[in-house]
Amino acid sequence: MTFQQKLDKVIDKNNSLLCVGLDPDLDKLPEKIKTQNNPQFEFNKKIIDATTDLICAFKPNSAFYEARGEQGIHELKMTCDYLRKNYPEIPIILDFKRADIDSSNLGYINYAFDYIGADAVTLNPYVGKVGLQPFLDIPDKGLIIWCKSSNKGSEEFQNLLVDGKPLYQIIAKNVATDWNKLNNCLLVVGATYPTELAEIRQIAGDMTLLVPGIGAQGGTAERFVKAGINSQKKGLIINASRSIIFAENPKQEAEKLRDEINKFRI
Amino acid sequence: MTFQQKLDKVIDKNNSLLCVGLDPDLDKLPEKIKTQNNPQFEFNKKIIDATTDLICAFKPNSAFYEARGEQGIHELKMTCDYLRKNYPEIPIILDFKRADIDSSNLGYINYAFDYIGADAVTLNPYVGKVGLQPFLDIPDKGLIIWCKSSNKGSEEFQNLLVDGKPLYQIIAKNVATDWNKLNNCLLVVGATYPTELAEIRQIAGDMTLLVPGIGAQGGTAERFVKAGINSQKKGLIINASRSIIFAENPKQEAEKLRDEINKFRI
Q1: Which CATH superfamily includes the segment(s) B3-263?
Q2: A146 min Cα distance to partner chain B (Å)
Q3: What is the C-alpha to C-alpha distance for residues A146 and A225, in angstroms, rounded to an integer?
Q4: Distance, in angstroms, between B79 CA and closest chain A CA?
Q5: How confident is the model at residue B218 (pLDDT cuts 50, 70, 90)?
Q6: What is the mean pLDDT of the segment spanning B16-36?
């Protein structure tokens, strides 16, 4: 089964486009979890168990685990092992935004798919298609290319005009028409840029878009869902991290957000 | 002491612009090393001891260690601990080409500087200056921004023309004139593109450039040294990995390459 098939199945089953970002910043964990042996894993386990029937994917960001060196990496692996064992139908997106040249990517491929066991990864496009080819050659994994990032100042290079078109549109076009030979590509577009999201939806056809930047970063559901939904009324993975995992009641928060998103899937 | 000061000191002491890439691909290690407890570390130790007085820096590429999960990360740390203990004057460049948005970069900062103990890191520019600000705010570390990568096909986005100028030139200019407020920025330019290297040298003033892509990837010393050297007859970190670490006699190979490079530092 490909990443896309796995994803679409869970979107339908859970009636959800919501993805929960498993970003357990150690400093922000409750004191009684922080003192346990594997605090990031223990924290994640609670979030996973509480939200797994409300979401379409989990997305751990590797940065929050690498911060702690080998112990963090170990707990990231524990988290994904736990997911695969208990909820094998839920896709795991490893958000690591890697890109190296040619064969050096093989190390990151081993890390993401063999060691962690992810179903999809995020990648940075700057090196170009030839550089990322070892990733693009993997048919069953999802390759989610950073196109328009959600941060302030993302326009510095991403919006530079090339023949009258902003760079992010050229990246979207190249990915949709040239990189996606195996139907394994997706794009990242920040919820904070709904106009750009609508443009990229036009360029990318029904391709699934990963949309971060809601909740703590401030995008509003009506705007980005309407801008990004595809002709099947899906095609979006909408990620929230801090606003759910650090909420008093993560399950309630996830349900609220899922339902809010679904209001505009029309 | 800043990264640049540490680097310049070793360049002078060892009369060398050569950097050795510690990329111990497990599959390529000799059988008798592969069976030891910490094979990547044991392999690196030999390379380090053999070449340390011939080089200006060591550059481990994180991908080759991450490939093995927590054990690889552990051996990368062992390698850097060994370097700091035995050769504290030699700068360590962690080649990990990261970039995330805003505070998510803090995880990578902890990984690179607190856990691994690197003196400098490579970064991907696509997210823009605001996204990378947490890195740029660190005065004593070297931040080496991917500008023109050495791989085939790097022109897909890097050479797109913006107002008549290729994107890599705009990145070089922004880094040199705006990102480099704390004098902690450097640029990556592939030896495989000597014309672009000469252009970037013009834009970046005396800024130090990290130049990969020699040896196994094929750049020749005369062209890239003449194209890249700065007004102080340094300003280059010239990296070779496979051609040295997998040579029959790494010390001899490093010496030959150092001397070949120095022939054109005139």
Answers
A1: Aldolase class I (3.20.20.70)
A2: 9
A3: 19
A4: 14
A5: low
A6: 97
